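pasting for ref
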Amino acid sequence: MIVEDIYELASRIDDVIDLIWATVDRMVIYNIGKPTPEIISMADDLQITADILKKALRELRAKRYGRVQEYCIEINRLENRIDLVYRNALGKLLNEETDLLYIIKWKDIYQILEDASDRSEDVANVLEAIVLKYA
């Protein structure tokens, strides 16, 4: 791997971390006492995604490119699942809640965590590009 590949990978991973931090930061700023089941589901899937990314990076280092691609497929599947939970959470929020401040806070939090999931998929795309380049 060349420096540009490592930089791109590190940059995309940093984006994910920044968005996860932003989610937690907003929950503190908004004084969120109890998480919703939807945010717990999204966070759990993002944790699984992070674990898979860790495994994919180990496989990349070991040059087991087939395994890296398998992990990338799993990351994409989890991103799709988080998208579905996000859309359902947004629909529930906008159609069932009447407290405007509650809606604004949770819409923001859901969006940031969904963005973190999207950036995780970007990491997987970078991994796939590296695999194609060096396999």
